[in-house]
Structures are given as C-alpha cells and as structure tokens.
Design a protein that fits this description.
Layout: E1 2-5, H1 15-28, E2 35-40, H2 47-55, E3 58-63, H3 68-71, H4 84-97, E4 101-107, H5 115-124, E5 129-134, E6 138-139, E7 161-162, H6 169-186, E8 192-193, H7 194-203, E9 222-223, E10 228-230, E11 241-244, H8 250-254, H9 257-268, H10 272-275, H11 280-283, E12 293-294, E13 300-302
C-alpha cells in the first residue's frame, strides 16, 4: 500500500502530523507493507525532517526545474524572491542523511530550451530518477467564480487562451529527443527517465506505470485538506468534485458512475486521428487535460502535445 503526500507544500504540515500518520498506519495496516512518498519544493527541509524520512523509509520527490537560471524563472516564494539556493540546501541535507530522492521538473516556455544542461545537472546532484512534466494551461479573465486557471475543457469562457508559460509542443518533443540521444550513449540502466520507461512498456504491450499513458484513467483521485475528493489532481475544479471523505467512502467515490465515466472518457472520446495513429498504444492520447486543440480534419480533442510526442 502506497500513501502519496502531495501539496501545495507538504512540509507546511509539521512533523507531528507525519508521526501521527506513521502511528495510524501501524495501527490499522494489520501487518501489511506500507510505503510513503512525499513531494516537496525542498525549501523547508532541515536535519530533523531528513532524519525522519530516512528512519521511516520515505521516498522524496523534489520539485526543481533545472539549474539556477531555469529554476528561478517561476519558482519564487511569496515575496517574489528566487528559491534555488534553498532547494539545493535541502537536497544537500537529504544526501547527508542518505534519504532516497528523485526529481520532478515542470517543463515550461523557458527551460524547454536547455534539455542537456538540465539533464546533466540532475545527474550531478544525484537524481537517478527523473520526471519531466510539461505545463499546458489555459487562463481567462471572465470566469464568474474568480478562478483564472480554467478546467481542461475550458467550457463557458469565450476569452480562454493559453497561459504564457505553456511549453511549446514541438520544442517539448525536441527536449526529450536531446536527452534520449545522450541517455542512450551513456546512461541506460544507471539513470531513469519516466517517459522512456513508459514508452518501452507501451511498445511491448505492458502497462505504462503512469496514468497519463494508460488506456483509461480515474484511479488517481486527489483529496484536499478538508476532505473534498476530486476526479484527478489535474481536475481540482468544482465541476469535478466527486464527494467528501466525511460523507462518502473512498470506494463509493472511486467506483461511482460519475468517476467511472470520467475514467472511460479518456479512451472513448479520442478523435479519429488518434484512433488510427500507429503510436496510439504508446500514448493513448496522453492526459485528457491536454486535449485542447483540433485534428487536421477539424475534430476536437487532439492533445496539444501531439506534435512533440
């Protein structure tokens, strides 16, 4: 059983919260093996946190977008100040205490131009498992509830437009090609890039290991601090709320007709161009949140990143 602790920023809950988690897991786990992974921006890490993670076998994901000039473009604190040096201090503390960590990077309009610099930087800091997440977002100024980010379908907003930080699709593809060419020559079996593993799995007919490349989805629900549960962490909008843990069990929500339909729509709403594509088994249309453009025949539902993939 795996618990994944994700934010916001997970370390804003103090250490006593996670000690309670460990206690409850032991009490109710009934002897089952329970693992914990935690995603953090790394700025609050200290010796005490790192000792806890090491002693309790937490796998830590660090949100870092590359070397300093890449990371600090968008990763700023609430005062608008750069955070790279704080993050690196946290990584050094994890190395000191022997905490297992990997890296999660958002690929945006700026750092997409520095694939090898980013890849080699992560190798230098000891990240053997790398995940690169392309950012594709739509924004509006007219949504009545005041939200500027739009749900993936963008319904009801005539002024919807791509956010300026959205990655260019073709550049995103070249980003991965550049890293692959380097990885194949030097690093197979030593460093692991999530997309490469998933693509290999799809090529040989195995499960991809990540929901965005699966045929269907819907099992990666997200629970907010107040118990509200949403269809997916990319769909935390009022339209996609499926219940609250105080009034419904996880089972009831995950296997509700609304959620099952959400998961099946990943497969069932693919445009004809995707259904006929020779690479369908490798991407399965990728994440529905990115299906915001039309095919060459004008059919809606093509993934914005298709050209890059």
């Amino acid at each position: 059983m795996l618990f994944t602790w994700h934010g916001g920023e997970t370390l804003l809950s103090d250490l006593s919260f996670y000690w309670k988690v460990i206690s409850l897991q032991k009490k109710y786990g009934r002897g089952r093996k329970i693992d914990n992974s935690l995603q953090t921006n790394g700025t609050l890490l200290n010796d005490e946190w790192c000792r806890f993670f090491k002693d309790n076998n937490f796998l830590i994901g660090v949100s870092i977008d590359g070397p300093e000039h890449c990371h600090d473009v968008y990763r700023k604190n609430k005062g608008g100040n750069a955070t790279f040096k704080q993050v690196m201090k946290g990584i050094e503390l994890m190395q000191k205490h022997g905490v297992e960590f990997n890296t999660l990077s958002v690929i945006n309009d700026y750092n997409v131009d520095y694939p090898l610099e980013i890849y080699n930087f992560f190798k230098e800091i000891g990240s053997h498992y790398m995940q690169f997440s392309p950012i594709v977002e739509k924004i509006t100024e007219s949504r009545p509830d005041g939200l500027h980010l739009l749900p993936p379908d963008g319904i009801g907003s005539d002024d919807a437009k791509l956010a300026p930080w959205t990655v260019n699709a073709k550049k995103f593809g070249q980003f991965y090609i550049s890293i692959l060419d380097e990885w194949v020559k030097k690093d197979v079996g030593q460093y692991f890039v999530q997309l490469f593993d998933s693509t290999l799995a799809g090529t040989i007919g195995e499960q991809p290991g990540v929901c965005i490349f699966g045929e269907t989805c819907g099992h990666a629900t997200v629970m907010e601090f107040n118990g509200d549960v949403y269809a997916c962490d990319h769909y935390v909008f009022p339209e996609y709320k499926i219940g609250n843990i105080k009034t419904h069990t996880i089972y009831e929500m995950v296997f509700s007709q609304k959620q099952l339909r959400f998961g099946a729509d990943k497969r069932d709403t693919l445009p004809t161009q995707c259904r006929k594509c020779e690479f369908l088994r490798m991407c399965n249309g990728e994440c529905p949140k990115n299906r915001i453009i039309s095919t060459r025949d004008g059919e809606p539902g093509l993934n914005y990143l298709c050209e890059g993939y």
